[in-house]
User: Fold this.
Amino acid sequence: MVTSTSARKSLQTTLEVPALRRSYYAQTQEDSKKGKKVAWCSNNIPSEILDAMDVTAVFLENYATVIASKRLASGFCAAGEKVGFSQDVCGYARMLMGYILARDEAPEAPYGGLAEPDFLLVNSYSCDSRMGWFSAMSRVLNLPLHVHDAPHQPDGASDSAANAEYTERELRSLVTFLEEQTGTKFEPDKLRKRLALSHQTSDIMFEVNELRKAVPCPMGSADMFTAVWPAMYLAGTKECEDFYNKLLAEIKERIAKGIGVVPEEKFRLMWSGIPFWYDMRLINYVEDFGGVVAIEGFYRSRERRPPVQDEDPIKDMALRSTRYRTFPSSIIASIDDVLDAVKEYKIDGVVLSFNPSCRLAYVSQTELQKSLEDRGIPTLGLECDMADERTYSEAQVKTRLDAFIERLLART
Amino acid sequence: MIDEFRERLLNRHQVAAAWKEQTGGKVLGTFCCCVPEEIIHAAGMLPVRILGEHEETTEVDIHFPTNLCPYCKSCFDQALKGKYDYLDGFVIPNVCNVIKSMYGFCKLLLKAPYVHFVEVPQRLSSNGVNFFAEDLVEFKNSLEDFSGKQISNEALRNSIGVYNENRALLEEVYQLRRKSPPLISGSEAQEIVISSMLMPKEEHNRLLTQLLDWVESRDNLPGDGVRIFISASVLDDTDFLQLVEECGGMVVADDMPMGSRYFYGSVDSTGDALHALADRYLNKIACPRKMLPDERLAFADNMMKDAAVRGTIIHNMRACDPHLYEYPLLRQKMESKGLPVLFFRGEETETEREQQRADIEAFIEMLED
Assistant:
């Protein structure tokens, strides 16, 4: 039995995340017992709206990473496979279907399991897997499902009035669905307040990432893959804002004192794609050779939150998400994004994770790798599932990493 | 008569290139069932479906990862090999992650002069239909800019008429499979449907009318094998259905994007043309992307009605998410009807065929007992 797979952290603030996470899951259980409505959600469901309507959000993808980090995924995945979900299906979805449909055969669930849901919410615009997964859950659990849609906008930001209006109408449909489920009337003021807090958090996150450009790098991905958690799941809350203020202060202090992740920084890496949650220590491995993973492609705050677009908070959310895109929407944008990061973060090499069961992340990785190599930037591609540790061979991965490190050290 | 369709399918690149040369019109490549081809047709252009090939990929593997949808990879491999060089552009719909990504890849790697993205909504609602109709106005405008010609309402209505006629004729063709013995085989019916995606619809309609006249007196009937229903994600040629029929099966009903899903459900010819198109392409295609499994199961039931089906074969292209998630339910529903199920995880290779043959033969034998 693996006792810990989590990465060694450099920052004190990051060490607070596991407690925040545990308390969040305990709170969701508590809420459920008190009769609060619980929504099982996919990522990117705007938690600020749920929070403003007193709905408890449980984000299943996060729970999947918790299971994976405890190396319990294979047990849950196998249970999911047994009820018919192929190994090609997203590791997160497979293990949660296993959790739901074959609980007797699956391992004991972390944190005492999930709070029982009253309804399900899925966003349609990220990946196909979420749609299929939530639809299947809605059927087997016999619970209402609401799909939250938005345009894809492959060219990124758009000034299309039709796109903004559609997004606004979809957000209002979500609100109506929640009003029907909870019997609570939506109050725009509550949402406005939460959005203001959430925007402050995003701005701090952006500043944190700007500071990570420093040499030596004050905070690596080993910390950041954990430190993004409050922003993703506690957005719009005071504790989230406090956490990031503290994080920012610690990073500033480290920079002032010249403290880096490694004492003598020899090379800087970028991690592109989803990490392998069952072996986050892999990110620390390069530190023994004077390397640091200074920035990541996924879960990265790239820009400040766009300025307020409208007094009405729903319309504001719609306009912000249509007129601004803070993540790349096509391969062309992804290439620009990784090349910019390489330059700005003074990256010597890029590790690309290839997670085949996540089509969204997977589809671009080969072209990204090619684009980097074509420009003389060394890369290492590692193909393993992000959650299912049966696809992972630590020895093999480390041998390849050793060779990559050698290649990088020979250049410096 | 069937050869007329087969010939056009086998020589699809030459057919499209010849049309282009004769008419001076533009040819656009499309993916998936949810691109309203009528608008392209009304613009005086020829829409053709991008298809893959059962051959080794040689160009695509430096651009796309190994374990990705083999169909999409094969399509792109064909494009990189220059097989689609006659295309003037691509129309990419908002369907699955891989097809969505084609928008950027077509721009980046194929340097296509015209690449348009159609925002197909993912939630089925009147809000979705209205937005889709608005997006189709954008699509129409973009085609007008590209061609330099206006698309009149009259032209749109005419195209809707031509396409609806094609759908009605194809439905008649499909009925021929249900007869006992079938007047055409499943693989022949699929040849006819796929050829419709590759050539001018007016000509296809003319051929279909001739076929329907001819078939009543057909003397070389395809035979009367074990009657099979096929549910598939992507079967972009007729090889698989031919294999089933070589093994003693007869495909008499299907639920496939390169089959019934392409043409079932007509466009309302009254009211606003773009709104009617939005309604048909969003609401009437029983694709698992819509996440309405009940609707899809009802569609499958409708396809199987009076077809006296004895077994079901499910063929899912590897890594095709929308289909993979509905597979357990589909299997369960088929089995609850007393229909045994054979499942395949599809690749786009020649070698898989021989492995499949043994499984299909055993399945048919089991059904015959």
In short: The two ends of chain B are 35 Å apart (CA to CA).
